[in-house]
């Protein structure tokens, strides 16, 4: 919690002319400017947070509407219900993680991690989405490193979510793991060349995000921030209509 001391500028500040008074005047002006900057910064942060909550609420209404329609019509397909509930769970998890990360960026617990195991757990959790689009998946290799399992899982969930969301029906996701590198490749619709440099900007959705109306523009932004704290790099290569390759490497 930040506490601010509000300093009221004397009305007759201009009459202070002695050397010591001028020093005091400069200090006071600096304090007032700093106070103004802090207030503006907090106002901007608050507006960004309100915008984010609004955006996320809109995104979560999609699966809620789908579930509501199923309940009204009595067409409760088990797999479809699972998909919508999982979508809600994933969206809520991302929002909570985003808020947690912004408030406390030192929340990292390092332990020995098996990359393959983390990815397989995520794949199992999201298998309803793989089945829906008839996606095939191959995973090869492993990498044991000291890292934070929870935050690594969060990063992989962002990348896998995009690989599923923007893939073609009957497409592939290929994961290749080796010492110091993870490659997650999909056969999806790809990313425009001019969008690639901006993918990790906060709120940037690009052409694909606008087309699919499913993107908040925070997944890759957060993934990059988290990976930076884990001393890992992320790079993306893509070709339109051929797919995307995401490389995660040791710095």
UniProtKB/TrEMBL annotation:
Gene3D superfamilies: Histidine kinase-like ATPase, C-terminal domain (3.30.565.10)
EC number, UniProt record: 2.7.13.3
Biological process, per Gene Ontology: cellular response to phosphate starvation
Sorted UniProt keywords: Cell membrane, Kinase, Membrane, Transferase, Transmembrane, Transmembrane helix, Two-component regulatory system
Residues in Histidine kinase domain copies: 55-251
GO molecular function annotation: phosphoprotein phosphatase activity; phosphorelay sensor kinase activity
UniProt xrefs under SUPFAM superfamilies: ATPase domain of HSP90 chaperone/DNA topoisomerase II/histidine kinase
InterPro entries named in the record: BphY/WalK/GraS-like (IPR050351), HATPase_C_sf (IPR036890), HATPase_dom (IPR003594), His_kinase_dom (IPR005467)
Highest taxon of the lineage: Bacteria
Catalyzed reactions: ATP + protein L-histidine = ADP + protein N-phospho-L-histidine
Annotated compartments: Cell membrane
GO cellular component, one term: plasma membrane
Enzyme class at the top of the EC tree: transferase
Membrane topology, from the record: Multi-pass membrane protein
Protein name: histidine kinase
UniProt lineage: Bacteria, Bacillati, Bacillota, Bacilli, Lactobacillales
